[in-house]
Fold this protein.
Amino acid sequence: MTVLKNSIRDLLRYPSAILGSVIILFLLGVTVYALVTIPYSEAIRLWRGGEDVWYQNPKYAAPAWFNLFSTTKKPVSFAVNTSDGSMLKTITPSSDPNISTVDITYTFDYAYDSVPQELIIYFTSQYKEKLSFVSVSWITPDGRTIRIADLAANSKLTLRFSQDQKLQKRLKTEDVMEAIFADPNSVTQAPLKGRYQLVIAGTTFEKDATIDAEFVLHGELFGTAGTDKYRRDLLLPLLYGTPIALAFGLLAALGTSLLTMVIAAAGTWYGGWLDELIQRITEVNLVLPFLAILIMVGTFYSRSIWLMLGVTILLSIFSGSIKTYRSIFMQSKESSYIEAARAYGASNSRIIFSYLIPRMIPLLIPALVSSVPGFVFLEASLAVLGLGDPVLPTWGKVINDAFADGALYQGRYYWVLEPAILLMITGFGFAMLGFALDRVFNPRLRDI
Amino acid sequence: MAQNNKLLRIEDLVLHFNTSQGPVQAVDGVNFELDSNRAVVILGESGCGKSSLAKAILRLLPRNAGTYSGHIYLQGQDIMSFAEEEFRQNVRWGSISLVPQAAMNALNPVIRVGEQVAEPAIVHLGVDKTGAISMVKKMFQHVGVPEDFISRYPFELSGGMRQRVVIAMALVTSPVLIILDEPTSALDVLTQANIFNVLKRLKHELGISFILITHDIATSSELADDVAVMYAGQIVEVSDAYRFFDKPLHPYSQKLLASVPRLHSDKEPEFITGRPPSLINLPKGCRFADRCPARFEKCVEDPPVIEKEGRNVKCWLYS
């Protein structure tokens, strides 16, 4: 315990260790948060979901905080509905017990410099025979009332403002959004700022009939991370990509380092044909193109991330570090404490695991930590090359989607930069901690 | 079968190492016997095959070992015929312990000494950890290490303490024979004397036999019951210690003893002219002949082992 404490104290002398640890702790925090709030199956369902899941979100929306850095404020998307109380609903019974009026209103401040992409109302109503009736109107800040639509509400009814042809005719324009947000006294196209009100007046003709509505404004900005082509909230892959990236990176680094070390130790200790075999396999493996093999496996066999992890570990075991480890094991193999262990009858496996390998731990720990970002990047690279796991929301997949959709040409930088920055800080975090660990544990670098 | 009563009997033990220049005949036809509760000192110059003999007995062969033959009877059983795993379990786990050369470095630097000494007991004797630790405490008492050293790491111990810990480690499996390969060569004289007192007491208290490999003639005379002198991979003289130190038979032994400085004598310490022969190109006949002051024409033939008053000597002078 004191050894651990001392190591940590030594480590914290290096600012890079502190920064690296903070980054890694942050990533671990995100991991825990993501795994607790979004179960694995739910994450996959959302990520694979289409319009039915993501109908509330606009396409290609940049993050909402873009407004903080811009003088022209773009509309931020929102969605409200009556079932959770975010939209006000009042029911007034009339003298006829079967008939009652349902008034739904939603008032909001609109202070943006452009009009939203779309306004949509989703009605859900329950009835037995007689359809309920709804009348939708729009009250602008200067007091004008615009009649939007009068409809008989089916059990499911969607009203898209800009695609409603009756409304287009009534407003005498194809661009409904411009019309309902326009300032009649202004010549510019800028929308009128102020308090708008949506009023839905409904009438039900049965005793148990109900009307509920959900009002969605598709702006140009959305949430903390924005959305992609399929209206998906990018926060999901950014959050959920963290555990996947860390799991891939850590498992690959751990598996590779440990297996490499055990194999190198066994080869060195037993020597003879085993050592020869390991060395020859390593030399052959060193000239094999690593990425090309992964691409081949991904193209012809399976793109499952766990299979990729397995292949990655398998190909990384017989790497150059087997030679490094071997050279060090060769030295410690001849130490007299190992001869002493042999003399009292320690078995081969005991010598390998409790005499040879512990000598290697000071070298192993920094190497392990430093090799994590390489594997995280590898996973992202595979995804960017289109060989990412088709099911999982990962950082690389986001970049791949953005690339496929030409996000950079269209000026949608957020789409590429968000996952890229996360990848970068992950790399930084592990690299900085790795350097500091190397300084603490590697006796040759330890300052006197 | 009378000879089977001996604790250890070595017959024609040969251990050669393969090198690019040819086989190194490090141990070349060694014969000797050892009774229970006896200490035999193997004396010899550096490079005469003393340590190789120790390794050959425990079959701790380096990778370039070549010919390895002969018979080693331990309590009547030929342990040379054991398979590797059988050898490990029967010989190294209990019967014979080794205190290796440079015992100061014979401790794993990353394990606490207590655990290290307890390890053979836990692994081989099936003792649980607390039992093993109490065994370690007993062993530490035997060798004179304070009990609270159990939780220290090797680098926190002085050389003498480390040496004692290594001896405790050799004792913990209660062996019948301990081979000490230059146990005191890196220690100061006081500590050396101390360690030898420990060994003497152990021999007396536990009835263990020792093979003590050393070139320190003066200190070894403290412990020795018998003396075997080794020269160029062969044992040239075996004698009881009392008569050996009084009057060695083999010319080499005589020269060896004469090289020890004496306090109450004006005699200059002698040295032996020439160099020991290379173990790769050994001369025919007596291997000491080139440097021997008493050389005569018979020495071109290999001398037989001659028994003289219960002492064995490999020299034509006594035929």
About this structure: The mean pLDDT of chain A is 88. Residues 64-218 of chain A form a domain with the Jelly Rolls fold (CATH 2.60.120). Chain A touches chain B through 18 residues (CB under 8 Å).
